[in-house]
Fold this protein.
Amino acid sequence: MKQKRSLLEKAAAVPHMVWIVLFILGPLLFVLYFAFTDTKGSFSFSNIELLTSYSHIFFLSICFALVATAFCLLIGYPLAFVMARAKPSSQKLLMLLLMLPMWISLLIRTYSLMTLLDNGGLVNSLLTAMGLDTVSIVGTGGAVILGMVYDFLPYMVLPIYTSISKLDKRYLEAAADLGCNGFQTLFRVVLPLTVPGIVSGITMVFVPSISTFYISQKLGGGNFDLIGDTIERQFKYASTYHIGAAISLVMMILILISIAVMNRFSDGDGEEMIV
Amino acid sequence: MKKTITVCLLLCMLALFLPVFASCGGGDVVTLYVYNWGEYVSDGTEGSLDVNAAFEEWYEREYGVRVKVNYSTYSSNEDMYAKISSGAANYDIVIPSDYMIARMIEEGLLRELDLANIPNVEYIDYSLMFGDEMPYYDPTNSYSVPYTYGTVGIIYNTTMVDEADLGSWDIMWNEKYAGNVLQFNNSRDAFATALFKLGYSVNTENEQEWRDALALLMLQKPIVQGYVMDEVFNKMENGSAAIAPYYAGDFFTMYADNEDLAFCYPEEGTNVFVDAMCVPTSSQNPEIAERYINFMLSGEAAIANAEYICYASPNRLVLEDEDYRATMEEIHPDAMKILYGTEDIPMEFYENLPEEHLMMVNSLWEELKIESPINTSIIVMAGAILGTSVGAGVYFAVRARKRRKIVATLWHN
Amino acid sequence: MKILSRTYMWVVFALLYAPILVLVIFSFNDGGSLSAYTGFSFRWYGELFRDQVALQSLKNSFFLAASSSLLATVIGTFAALGLDRMRNRYVKGAVNSVTNIPMMNPDIVTGVSMMLLFVALGGMLGLGDVLGKWTMLIAHTTFSLPYVILSVMPRFKQFDKTLREAALDLGCTPAQSFFKVELPAIVPGIVSGLVMAFTLSLDDFVISHFVSSPDFQTLPLYIYNQTAHNVKYSMYALCTLIIATILVLLLAVNFAGSVGDRTKRRREALK
């Protein structure tokens, strides 16, 4: 039976549609508009041409984000695996422990990490007290990576944990029956089956890492200009909106492409990888 | 029943909206909008005088009108300028720095003051700042009344710095302190350190001289721990950095928390600035604003502010006050000398640069900021990761296809 | 092996919590330092409650979160209803993908794009600088919308359509059937969407950073300004209080969840 839709049903989505056209599509159109106009408002490619002088910023940011994502994966996967294998009763507590940092503002976490690692911070005070040399951590590239890993690790662990704990236990039993040892099970069965979790973990770490500005400002001491810092400066301090819009546009396209690539990678369902 | 829930929800929403989003219209109270730098007025913390509250009280007593001071803050002249020039906000009092006042007068954003409402202006000692001349930014001296003035110097940690290296801007380029030097995170102040070191004017119109300064800043970049503004307080207080150029008045705040810190003026000269009270043209209550300025110049308020902010005060009532001197000496033995004894050091104001010149400076600054130290290890790691993941992707794709083929052949057979 | 993996897990958690713990411990420090502990005191908590700016930004944060999450929930719920009933597949797909843009985009791009819109529109309409509480409200509502729709949509999809037909057959008008039969079934989705939107709004810094003005500060913006300036040690007290609140809320949700589970299981057992 084909129902007649009431007026309410027909009109229900209209406010939402108006809203998203105004406040999601509208802003993006303005990004496009600003990226392709000069300060006088006439069409020009000058902002895009200027981007060549920012190419090494893009390169550096991608490098930083890649390394941070890789570390998150290397640290996060075993963690998720161990967590998923824990007793069901303690899993709840472990989940809580994992969720708590996610809910605490990134600002607080980054800042407390910075004060801990600073030249005059607790770590260095302890080192001096033990008669060792102090190490300058803040202001180096390593500190920025460390900050990214520290801040975004839970985003990697959570989806992987979910996909491991959803795993059909019979696969593991089958693997064991067929003579796999623990490592073989992990690498040949569990890992391929949790690819979707890994992929969403990678996206959830990579996107904020590549666009961060707070972490590089605090832990990098303003020495490392990442894409986020550059954009922030154009909008908050230099008022050069046109260049800022061009950089944002390129970053957005870059990220959408990488998300699309990642999704394609995970589309091939993990199951066919074991066979 | 469900309908009532929806209605209730909507009502709740409205109720929540009202207090925040409805502008509060309250009786006969006049609101005076004051727009100032952060932490730039005595606000009643730690036993100081709450100047704004004192003004409200005084005004009601004196003129019988209730005034409410709406106090908000900005963190740079440029922020404030953007807000005022956009015309959206109607502030009654702003406190810009010298070069910004010149620009705002030029653009007609400031209102000529009626000095009859500001009799206390007689206490201002202009000779402290300008010698025999008129303020360069306000040649007729009719748009602004100085609030504080200050200088830039080098703050250093005595436990980390050799006395012999002091006395010049060179110390900020000294390799010995690599990783322990802080630099300003704003173009004008950072370039000034390099321009002074080179012996150029900070207002030079010669592009080559700015380029030389940029080259010098680029040279400095590897030994700089960070480009900071107010983060400098914590970094210097907890000993995370050894050397930082900053405003003299702020040194005392840091010294209060870390007695190892000391202050010196570089011999090549340094920047002096004046922050002065002005009334924007858009002000709705210029008369009350002028009386506010007058109140700020009165002994009580001016001393409270000078003791709270620790910047130099151009007000004679402050300078001649014994208590003020005693308080400052208590804060730091050389406080009066650092703030007021600057006759021997060459000083230069920032002037308002022409628009295209400012843009040039900004683009040079951008060049400095986007220059990142090469991090070979990180780049190599990233390359390796990319290589591994692409390799793994191809390997798995090929293997999956092969297996699918095998399965298919098996199926057909 | 087991011991090894256990140790690994606890080491990672310890590292994850170390900075936070240090912050919490030093918020009770008598002196103003993050490297030397000089004695226990509530001094900074006292300072915090005298700090008008901090209290005002807390208030702003809550009002903004409440109003933006309610607005997003109302718009989002109706949108989910409309999308559920929509017959044109292409329109539906288009609306869905546009809605999800803020979820995919990095926050900074969302923030910057909205700032451009507001600044440009403000200039065109001659309103001047429009950034402030209204732009914050719009921005927060916008980025909460996809999450609301995401949690309400499945409820509509799961809803048994025959129930609605039954209601219509029994003489309900379509509106009555919606409010009396369908709405109660989707309320859990609405509530979780509302909670989600509320917490997202409370937590957001990046987007607010671009669409706000100094006269309307939320808590994250206040913390940012503090860390960019001379940090008052009362900020550590503030952070500790925030962490404690989150901990209590998470525990409560968890506890409520486990109690709910238990009653559900018990009810099932009784059947």
